[in-house]
Amino acid sequence: MTQNNPAASHFQSVGEGYAKYRPTYPIQLAQFLASQCTRHNLAVDVGCGNGQFSVLLSNHFKQVLATDVSASQIENAAAVPNIHFAVEPAEHCSAKDNSVDLIVAAQAAHWFDLPRFYEEVRRIAAPDCVLALVSYGVLSINDRDCNARFRQFYYDEIGPYWPPERQHVDNSYTSIGFPFEELDYPQMTIDREWTLEQFLGYLCTWSSVIAAAKAGKRNLMESFAEQLTSLWGGPQQHRRISWPIAMRLGRV
């Protein structure tokens, strides 16, 4: 993602919200990706956001380089001794040639200039390097009425305000070109037990919600929040939220 990418301004401004509300990845994902690597010297987490997944990778690699175009995101990352955070675009990585054993882009690759990113991947990849473009899809709520109201909001109401790149997330990255030998991966999900406040806080980090508000349609989120409140079951009620994990996984 280059500095003049229209998504950059969004991520520059929501780093704190991402750190507080965005769902973290399961430890099994980092364990699995590490198990696919023949060496564990250096992993690069590209488009790392506030470093949630970088921290999980740091348990399996001697060093992690975590990069993001947004200074706001990096400022909200937790300091970890073997993680180096850097503000830089995906298409210009500071890693040395032939030095990286795992390259990950978690919920970020749809923002990249992919041909240029893949050039960098080939440059920095060590022999047998693994590349994982990870995404998590449309969530579900373990309550029929809440889930039905959410899906109406996602597809019919806020849907027009998603940037075009969102289609790649909705179709599990199957529409993204991937010029590498592909590997299989196990089924995984992100699961959280959230209150209504946590769930609505997460939605407020969405670029579509922010874009709708800027377009004078703040009432879309307000109306949805009001109706969901009546369905949720009280401020202390926890609901299970699940996101399916998909990825394009390959060996460079």
TrEMBL record:
Pfam family, one: Methyltransf_11
UniProt keywords, alphabetically: Methyltransferase, Transferase
Domain Methyltransferase type span(s) in chain numbering: 44-132
DNA repair is among the record's keywords: no
UniProt entry tagged with the keyword Coiled coil: no
Family: Belongs to the methyltransferase superfamily.
Protein name: Methyltransferase type 11 domain-containing protein
Organism: Pseudovibrio japonicus
